[in-house]
Design brief:
Layout: H1 10-20, H2 24-31, H3 33-43, E1 50-54, H4 60-68, E2 73-78, H5 81-91, E3 100-103, E4 116-122, H6 133-143, E5 144-155, H7 164-172, H8 186-192, E6 195-204, E7 207-215
Parallel strand pairs: 1-2, 1-4, 2-3, 4-5
Antiparallel strand pairs: 5-7, 6-7
Length: about 220
């Protein structure tokens, strides 16, 4: 498939998410919550694990991670200070304080490699330049311990005609989707060295997504 071109512009991405942070949970609840539930299910989190979520956004998935891993190591990272502000408010209501939220750039994380049992990443790759997909997955691979697991969700093309509307929207009105667009990362996954354990297509209110469970060899 042809993937729409996107540029790596940190300032623009932060601006985009500053504008949508206040209603993002409504949007994600209507289009991404089914994928989020599947991500948590596939992660099969065991209390005491070391878990990192890159692109933790407003903290909805990270909050579920904390419920399952209150005695583990939990690190959430996001580029947007506005999204992280929402996450902090949500997590403050929870029972555990055993976590860290950090504003950070994926390509300058300064985090010890091979330190995590599980890595979670939701709807982030689809706003990145295609030429960076291999680099992104290599970073994920290196952050995981041997036999570690990555659970990744992306905006996808979908299988039905109704799903194609979102690709059209991403092409003609990209700012409405914060520059996200449908992507296919199968070949990038294979080049990086991950094994695809599961690959699941999801459609929620016609919005198409794909969830991958990947294992580090």
């Amino acid at each position: 498939m042809e993937i729409l071109k996107r540029n790596l512009d940190t300032a623009q991405t932060q601006k985009n998410y500053r504008q949508v942070a206040w209603f993002y949970n409504i949007w994600s609840g209507l289009t991404e919550s089914k994928a989020a539930k599947k991500v948590i299910q596939l992660a099969d989190i065991q209390n005491g694990e070391h878990i990192i979520e890159i692109g933790c956004g407003t903290g909805v998935v990270f909050n579920e991670i904390l419920k399952k891993n209150p005695q583990g190591i939990n690190l959430g990272i996001d580029l947007s200070p506005n999204m992280l502000s929402r996450a902090r408010k949500l997590l403050a209501k929870g029972a555990t304080r055993n976590y860290e939220l950090r504003q950070g750039d994926l390509f300058n994380l300064n985090i010890e490699e091979q330190g995590y049992d599980k890595l979670i990443n939701n709807f982030m790759i689809d706003l990145m330049p295609e030429e960076k997909f291999d680099d992104i997955l290599a970073i994920f691979y290196n952050l995981l311990k041997p036999n570690g697991v990555a659970i990744i969700s992306t905006f996808s093309v979908g299988k039905g005609k109704i799903n194609r509307f979102w690709g059209w929207l991403a092409k003609h009105f990209p700012k409405l989707l914060t520059d996200c667009r449908p992507v296919d990362i199968q070949n990038n996954i294979k080049r990086t060295g991950f094994e695809i354990e599961q690959e699941i297509d999801i459609s929620q209110n016609s919005f198409p997504s794909k969830v991958y469970k990947l294992k580090k060899g």
